Here is the input.
Amino acid sequence: MTKLLSIIMCIVFSLGIIVSSLSEINTSVVREDGLRDRAVGWIDKAIP
Here is the structure.
């Protein structure tokens, strides 16, 4: 029972770390002057 509990806790903590890192990446992409704005600017400059 303790092995099962430790495996479940490990999975829960791993999922928590993954979700928090994904939200951090999402905010860096979406924020003002983030990656999305830079990519749109690069595309606008590339297309004559």
Remarks:
- The mean pLDDT is 86.
- The chain has two helices and no strands.
- Helices lie at 2-30, 35-46.
- The longest helix spans residues 2-30.
